[in-house]
Amino acid sequence: MKSANRSRRAQGKAGAETKAGASDWIRAGLALLGRAGIEAVRVEPLAAKLGVTKGSFYWHFKDRDALHMAMLEAWRADTTHNVIARVEAESARKGERLTLLIGLATRNTALPRLEIAIRAWAKTDERVAGAVGEIDRQRTDYVALLLRDLGIEPRTARLRAKILYLALIGGLFSEGGGPPDGALWAEAERLIARNT
Description:
Elements: H1 2-19, H2 22-36, H3 43-50, H4 54-60, H5 64-90, H6 94-107, H7 111-122, H8 126-149, H9 154-174, H10 182-193
């Protein structure tokens, strides 16, 4: 009887270990990063949040740094690459793309805190700083492309893209990590997209 109970407990533990996949650890890590910063992203609290043991973590990641780098890659994909792909897929008309992009960037309530936390992390890790710089360039380049599609001359499109992007990032910090004001961004879009 004792061995049967031990066997059931072992099966339960094994089931818990497989319950959390790598993507679960990454999502939980990003959520914790947005709430408490990179130093809080540790194996023990994440395991507790996911309801698994630390063994599950080591099944998916070599160490904490590997999780951190996977989180950084997920941030890149989720907040930039996937957003651009969605804008391209959902907006057949060129004039709609900038509106959709601004809406996606300003209505995501989790994004402000995560962006602030990523940028704070970048101050302490060169790899993250490099990734943030690369993403900033990709985002600005995409906005400039959208503005050129509206007939705005390339140099002006580049300058306006930079202004819009800096306003968005600055807005994240000045609004305390809360969602940006929709009317503000509608007016910013109107000014930036003017073809004069």
